[in-house]
Design a protein that fits this description.
This protein is an alpha/beta fold and 445 residues long. The chain is 50% helix and 15% strand. The strands form 3 sheets. A 6-stranded parallel sheet has the order 3-2-1-4-5-6, sandwiched between helices. Strands 7, 8, 9 and 10 form a 4-stranded antiparallel sheet that branches. The longest helix is centred in the N-terminal third of the chain and has 25 residues.
Length: 445
C-alpha cells in the first residue's frame, strides 16, 4: 500500500514512520511518500526516516516531493498533518489574541478560529484533489483544528475522511492505569468535539469503574487531569474532561499564565524546531539523535503553562511517548485488513448526538472495519456539556461559512460567538489583527 503524508516535512512524521516499521502482515504499507511545500524540511525528515530504517530490509520505501498531485496519485491512505503558515503563523495567532486579553491557543478560542480560517481553504483544496486523483483513498486528518478541518474535508470526501487525536486515547489510558485496568481491555465512554470532550465512564468486563475513581481523592489527584482540574471539580462534573477543557474551566488563570510566559508555545516551538532544521543542514549531524532530543524537550513542555497555573507539576514519563501515530496505524490496519477495532475518532455525527445535525463532526468511540468508522451510540450529554458543545459547533460552522464566502462580517461573528471571546469589539479587533498578521487571510473582505 501507498501512504502519502501531507506535511511530510513536519517534525512529528518520524513517529508515524516508526509505527510502520516491523509490520510484515499482508496489506501493510510498503511505500511512503512525503509531501511538503518546503523541500529542505522534506530532506531533513527523510534523513531521520533513513536512520530509523537502518538494518530493517522490509522498511517501507520513502520518497518525497513538493508536487501535491504527484504525491496523491495512487495513494491508498492520505495522512494530512499540514500547518498553514507554519509555526510563525501559530506564534502570531497567540500574540494577537493575548494582546486583546483572550486565549490564543492553536485549537481553542481566538487562536483556533484564526488557524481554522487560514487552514480550511487549503484543506478543502486538498480534499477536492483527493476526490479527483485518488477517489478510493482514505484520508486520515491530524491537521488542527482537527474536528473543524475534518468537517470541511468531509463535505467533499464524505465518510472517507476521518479525524484523529491522541488526547482522548491518552486520557483513557491514564484513567485505566490509575484504576488498575488494562487500557486495551477497557471501553472508554467518551463524547464531545475535538479538544472538547468528557470521559463519562470506563467499562471493564461490563462494569463501569469511573465512579470508583471519582469517589477516591487520592486516585483523582494521582494523574494529569486530576492535577489540572482538581478532585472537587471532577466530582462536581461526574466526569473527567479532556485536558483542553482547562482553557474553558480555568480561562482567566490560563490566559494570565500565557501572558506571563517568556514565550508563547508557538514561539517556543518555532525557535526549537528552527534550531533542529538548521542542525540538519550539516551533513555530519546524527539525524535520529537530534530528532529524539528535540522531541523529548517538546513533549516535556507540553501545556506547561496550564500545569504551572494549576500547580500540577511536570508531566509523567508515560505521557511523553506520543500516541497519535498508534491511532493512525490502528485505523489503517482496521480498514485495510478488516481488523475490527474500537477507536475514538472524529467522524460525522449520523444521529449519534441528537443535539447536532447528521453532518456535524464529533469525537466519539467508533467501530472500525473495512467499510470505515461507525460511531457508537452514546447517552445524551448533560446540560452544561450540551451547551458548550453546541456553542463551539456553531462557531465552527461560522468559520466554515466565512472560509467559503470570504465574508469578513461572518469571520467577526465566528470570533464574537465563541465562549472565550467576551466582546464584539474584541472580535472586530481580532479580525483586524489577524488579517494584518496573515497574508493568507486577505480573502476576507
Amino acid at each position: 500500500m501507498k501512504l502519502t503524508i501531507l506535511g511530510g516535512g513536519g517534525f512529528r512524521v518520524p513517529l508515524v514512520y516508526g509505527a510502520l516499521l516491523g509490520d510484515r502482515a499482508e496489506g501493510r504499507v510498503t511505500r511512503v511518500v512525503l509531501h511538503d511545500v518546503d523541500a529542505g524540511r522534506l530532506a531533513a525528515v527523510a534523513r531521520v526516516l533513513d536512520e530509523q530504517a537502518a538494518g530493517d530490509p522490509g522498511a517501507p520505501e520513502v520518497s518525497f516531493t513538493t508536487d501535491l498531485d504527484e504525491a496523491l496519485r495512487g495513494a491508498d491512505f492520505v495522512f494530512s498533518a499540514i500547518r498553514v503558515g507554519g509555526l510563525e503563523g501559530r506564534a502570531a495567532d497567540e500574540r494577537v489574541a493575548l494582546d486583546e486579553g483572550v486565549l490564543g491557543q492553536e485549537t481553542v478560542g481566538a487562536g483556533g478560529i484564526a488557524y481554522g480560517l487560514r487552514t480550511v481553504p487549503v484543506a478543502v483544496d486538498i480534499a477536492r484533489r483527493v476526490a479527483h486523483l485518488a477517489p478510493d483513498a482514505w484520508v486520515i486528518n491530524f491537521t488542527n483544528p482537527a474536528g473543524l478541518v475534518t468537517e470541511a474535508m468531509s463535505r467533499h470526501l464524505g465518510d472517507r475522511v476521518i479525524g484523529i487525536c491522541d488526547s482522548p486515547v491518552g486520557l483513557g489510558r491514564r484513567i485505566a492505569t490509575v484504576l488498575g485496568a488494562n487500557p486495551r481491555e477497557a471501553f472508554i465512554d467518551y463524547v464531545g468535539l475535538n479538544h472538547l470532550g468528557w470521559v463519562r465512564g470506563l467499562r471493564v468486563e461490563g462494569r463501569d469503574e469511573l465512579p470508583r475513581l471519582l469517589a477516591d481523592p487520592a486516585l483523582l489527584g494521582s494523574f494529569e487531569e486530576g492535577k489540572l482540574f482538581g478532585a472537587d471539580w471532577l466530582r462536581s462534573l461526574g466526569a473527567v474532561p479532556n485536558e483542553y477543557l482547562h482553557y474553558y474551566y480555568f480561562n482567566r488563570e490560563a490566559v494570565s499564565a500565557y501572558q506571563r510566559a517568556e514565550k508563547t508555545r508557538g514561539a517556543f516551538l518555532r525557535d526549537q524546531q528552527g534550531r533542529f532544521y538548521e542542525e540538519m543542514e550539516r551533513p555530519d549531524t546524527a539525524a535520529l539523535t537530534a530528532w529524539e532530543r528535540t522531541r523529548a524537550e517538546r513533549e516535556a513542555t507540553y501545556m506547561a503553562e496550564n500545569r504551572d497555573a494549576a500547580g500540577a507539576g511536570e508531566r509523567a514519563a508515560d505521557d511523553l511517548s506520543g500516541g497519535y501515530e498508534k491511532v493512525a496505524l490502528a485505523l489503517m490496519r482496521a480498514i485495510a485488513r478488516d481488523e475490527r477495532t474500537t477507536l475514538i475518532l472524529n467522524v460525522r455525527n449520523r444521529g449519534t448526538l441528537a443535539v447536532l445535525d447528521a453532518d456535524a463532526v464529533i469525537e466519539v468511540p467508533c467501530l472500525v472495519d473495512a467499510n470505515g468508522a461507525h460511531p457508537v451510540s452514546v447517552d445524551p450529554l448533560p446540560g452544561h456539556a450540551t451547551g458548550l458543545v453546541c456553542a463551539v459547533k456553531a462557531v465552527e460552522r461560522e468559520v466554515l461559512s466565512a472560509a467559503e464566502s470570504g465574508s469578513r462580517t461572518t469571520a467577526v461573528k465566528a470570533f464574537a460567538l465563541h465562549p472565550l471571546v467576551d466582546s464584539v469589539n474584541v472580535a472586530r479587533r481580532l479580525v483586524d489583527g489577524y488579517t494584518s498578521a496573515h497574508p493568507g487571510l486577505a480573502y476576507l473582505k
